[in-house]
Design brief:
There is one protein chain. By secondary structure, this protein is an all-alpha fold. 65% of the residues lie in helices and 0% in strands. Helix 2 packs across helix 6. The longest helix is centred in the last third of the chain and has 18 residues. The radius of gyration is 15 Å and the shape is globular. The N and C termini lie far apart (34 Å).
């Protein structure tokens, strides 16, 4: 894709899908996404939510980069391509579905780790899970998060 056209696509995505607001001075939209993720975690995975609270884990410690980069900052490119395709086809709710699904899929490992281990898991181990099978992320798209809950 030519550079000029790629830039036009970026501008359209930023404006039409609400991503532009993630980067404002107050990052209010990012805070809202983190709050919604926290509430969904509290409702869907209360044990993991309690563990994070006990360990002093804030979702912003790892999920901010997920939302601000559409998972591109941490995950292998083939995984990001799957997420981007779903995002463009279905809209911003995909980001929340992927985030909650990743937490659900990782809960058993996360519940055994201390603070430093949790952060390392999100930084290294979780993205590496998809190196061999990037298509595994497709299961996240089937995960249901009600738009009403968000």
């Amino acid at each position: 894709m030519p550079e000029k056209r790629a830039f036009c696509v970026l501008v359209r995505v930023m404006c039409n899908y609400g991503l532009r607001d993630l980067y404002g001075q107050s990052v209010a939209a990012l805070r809202v996404k983190l709050y919604v993720l926290d509430r969904l975690l509290q409702l869907d995975l209360p044990e993991l939510h309690a563990w994070f609270c006990q360990q002093g884990i804030e979702l912003s410690m790892f999920a901010s980069s997920w939302f601000m980069s559409l998972f591109g900052a941490k995950f292998p490119l083939p995984v990001v391509f799957h997420i981007m395709d779903a995002f463009l086809a279905e809209g911003p709710l995909v980001m929340m579905r992927v985030a909650v699904w990743l937490l659900r899929e990782s809960a058993s490992q996360l519940l055994t780790l201390p603070l430093e281990g949790i952060l390392k898991y999100f930084r290294v181990k979780l993205p590496n899970r998809f190196l061999e099978d990037p298509g595994a992320i497709r299961a996240a798209f089937a995960y249901k998060v009600s738009a009403r809950a968000v």
